[in-house]
Design goal:
five-stranded parallel beta sheet, globular
């Protein structure tokens, strides 16, 4: 039996989309771990809006074999599962991509252990200034285990 270390993660938009498109992948496993109470997902309102914009793109929901309504249910569940993060301090601009700024803000304001993303290079060393690691989904899953 695994003994999990409690982690606080912010999933980048690419991981939210990957969890929807690939229910057997590492991103989906992180969402299921949060559902089981083995980790905390953190999300701000701007990040939730970004998830919606990304997941509602035709290429994503059709590739996942879902209807628009089913994507809405997925998004509602993801938002309900996450612990809300209020942005007390705006840390912008720190990163090249404005879309990544909201991920960094949620992580910094939510005292996340890590930002989980497929685009590690986009974040550089900036998250480490806030004590936040950046990792890919599979690595984040491994980090939960002893």
């Amino acid at each position: 039996m695994w003994h999990y270390q409690w982690m606080r993660y912010v999933l980048d938009t690419d991981c939210g989309v990957a969890a929807m498109r690939s229910p057997t992948g590492a991103s989906a496993a992180l969402v299921l771990a949060a559902l089981d109470g083995r980790l905390t997902l953190l999300m701000s309102v701007p990040l939730a809006v970004e998830y919606e914009a990304a997941c509602m793109r035709l290429e994503h929901w059709s590739s996942a074999g879902l209807s628009e309504r089913e994507v809405g249910v997925y998004l509602d569940g993801l938002v309900a599962l996450a612990t809300p993060v209020k942005s007390r301090f705006l840390w912008r601009p720190r990163l090249r991509d404005p879309g990544d700024e909201m991920v960094l803000e949620a992580a910094a304001n939510g005292r996340a252990d890590a930002i989980v993303t497929f685009n590690i290079r986009d974040f550089g060393v900036i998250p480490s200034q806030f004590g936040v690691l950046v990792s890919r989904p599979a690595e984040a899953l491994r980090r939960m285990r002893p």
